[in-house]
Specification:
With about 425 residues, this protein is of the alpha/beta class. Helix content is about 35%, strand content about 25%. Bound molecules: (2S)-amino(hydroxy)ethanoic acid (HGY) and manganese (II) ion (2 copies).
């Protein structure tokens, strides 16, 4: 009798809810939300917690050369391929409790539920927590390494600086060499599924329980440094200044105007501006901006990059400044796999959950994994669309729905093999 002929297998809600609460407390601070950035103590603590919970369930565990942490439920057949289920346990600074972490716990819960049910699937299952999805170091670092997409060039100038990278890898029990040798043979993979919060308002506004992701946006990020002349704020006439802060302010507004006017459906954000020396009575000689832009198509990313670069150069000319523009990352937009979308849809429908297809405005490990194996994503609603903020919230019911949909999609894929 096919697996999917019975009433849908569902997760152990009590166990899942208790783990969601315990996991959410690790790295949580009442004053500034979730502080689990890559290499932080809280990040290490939650990763240890994840492996402990896996072992408690009788699952094998592994940490690969990229520091990706996995729980594994092996198929009886040693030649079986592996279906990866997961996301990331690292957070942005002052982030939320659900971004990434929910997907890792849902992956673990799928393995535990399959094991509890005594099912012997024709594929091994691996719940994986990828290293540094959020980009404190590089962004999707662990999935890039596993996909074999990581290069030593990319590691030459990481966002966190080489020292932090090397010392952090050492603390994580690996090395740059380990990162570069963590690639998994795609022939051994049966696919990748990621359950994630939507991080936007679409599902909640539509009153829909599950989002079936059609494609994941691409993004580019830059570090733009304007250099002028730090001078006395009181004695330097207004027409004799080379004020780097003015270029930063003008560029922030111009980027918004340009993207809003010329790039429908795209977004751009200046997420950080740092002025030096940073004193009331000194004209800023240096302005360092961290900027990123996103689009659903590669050619739009190219045009966005060119537009931002030209705007920065024009502001440098206008305020008589030098400007240095460094690319700090590019993630190509990727469509999800139709077979994965169908498995998610079939699972949601067997559970009686409403669904809608939608693109992802957030980046994810799934867009990296899509380069080497069939990948799919399912979303659960985010309350008021809030994310990357302590107020990020998804209801327990929605989280349980997400885990059940992931379980059902896993069984539907096993059925196909
Ligand atoms: O930034 C993103 O889209 C993701 O949360 N890393
Ligand atoms: Mn995420
Ligand atoms: Mn995120």
């Amino acid at each position: 009798m096919p697996l999917t002929a019975h009433a849908p297998l569902t997760i152990d809600e009590e166990r899942f809810a208790a783990d969601l609460s315990a996991m959410s407390a690790i790295g949580w601070t009442n004053e500034s939300g979730m502080q689990r950035t890559t290499f932080s103590d809280a990040h290490a603590e939650v990763r240890t917690w994840f492996l402990d919970r896996a072992r408690a369930a009788g699952l094998r565990t592994r940490v690969d050369g990229a520091g990706n942490h996995s729980a594994i439920l092996e198929a009886a057949d040693p030649r079986a391929r592996t279906l990866l289920l997961g996301s990331h346990l690292d957070s942005v600074p002052s982030g939320g409790r659900f971004d990434g972490a929910l997907g890792v716990l849902c992956g673990l819960e799928v393995l535990r539920s399959v094991r509890d049910a005594g099912l012997d699937l024709p594929m091994s299952l691996e719940a994986i927590d990828f290293t540094d999805e959020e980009g404190a170091v590089l962004g999707t670092l662990g999935s890039w390494a596993l996909a074999g997409e990581l290069t030593s060039d990319a590691l030459a100038s990481p966002r966190c600086g080489r020292d932090v990278l090397l010392s952090g890898l050492e603390r994580m029990g690996t090395s740059e060499e380990g990162l570069l040798t963590a690639a998994r043979d795609p022939a051994g993979l049966a696919g990748f599924l990621e359950l994630h919060i939507e991080q936007g308002p679409v599902l909640e506004r539509a009153g829909v329980a599950i989002g079936i992701v059609t494609g994941i946006c691409g993004s580019v990020s830059f570090d733009i440094v304007f250099r002028g002349a730090a001078r006395h704020a009181g004695t330097t006439p207004m027409d004799a200044r080379r004020d780097a802060g003015l270029a930063a302010a003008a560029l922030m507004l111009e980027v918004r105007e340009t993207v809003t006017r010329d790039f429908a459906g795209c977004v751009a954000t200046v997420g950080d501006v740092h002025l030096e020396p940073g004193a009331y009575n000194v004209i800023p000689g240096v302005a360092d901006l961290k900027i990123e832009a996103r689009a659903q198509h590669d050619d739009e990313l190219d045009r966005l990059s060119a537009a931002i670069t030209e705007l920065a150069r024009a502001q440098a000319r206008r305020w008589d400044l030098d400007v240095h523009i460094e690319s700090t990352g590019r993630w190509s937009p990727e469509p999800t796999d139709p077979r994965m979308r169908a498995a998610i849809a079939a699972s949601a429908s067997r559970l009686g959950l409403t669904v809608m297809e939608m693109p992802s405005g957030a980046g994810h490990d799934a867009q990296v994994m899509a380069k080497v194996t069939a990948s799919g994503m399912a979303f659960v609603p985010s309350h008021h669309g809030i994310s990357h903020h302590p107020d990020e919230y998804s209801s327990l019911e929605d989280c349980i729905n997400g885990s059940n949909v992931l379980l059902g999609a896993t069984l539907a894929l096993a059925e196909e093999l």
